[in-house]
Write a structure and sequence with these properties.
Number of helices: 3
Order of helices and strands: HHH
Strand content: under 5%
Shape: elongated
Oligomer: single chain
Structural class: mainly alpha
Helix content: 40-55%
Radius of gyration: 25 Å
Number of strands: 0
Distance between the termini: 74 Å
Largest sheet: none
């Protein structure tokens, strides 16, 4: 595994990183690894139809559709 050194890191960022890592119950190094994995790693993408539709539509994406009222269900046919 490779390692990196980050120079000239602002004290405020280091403090917030330390607090965030403690809040998540792990070290600053592990917190940075998780941040980097999420930022540049290959995330598994769900490609099912529902997730694709939700990624394009919905209130969080600026599309909020009103659902029309439904009529009561009709009686099923009798085959007797």
């Amino acid at each position: 595994m490779a390692s990196i050194t980050i120079r000239n890191l602002d004290d405020d960022i280091r403090t917030r990183l330390r607090v965030r890592a403690a809040g998540n119950g792990h070290s600053m190094e592990e917190e940075v690894r998780q941040i980097l994995r999420k930022a540049v790693g290959r995330a598994e993408r769900s490609r099912d139809l529902t997730s694709i539709i939700r990624s394009h539509f919905g209130p969080e994406n600026g599309v909020d559709l009103e659902l029309p009222e439904r009529d009561p269900a009709r009686e099923p046919p009798s085959f007797v």
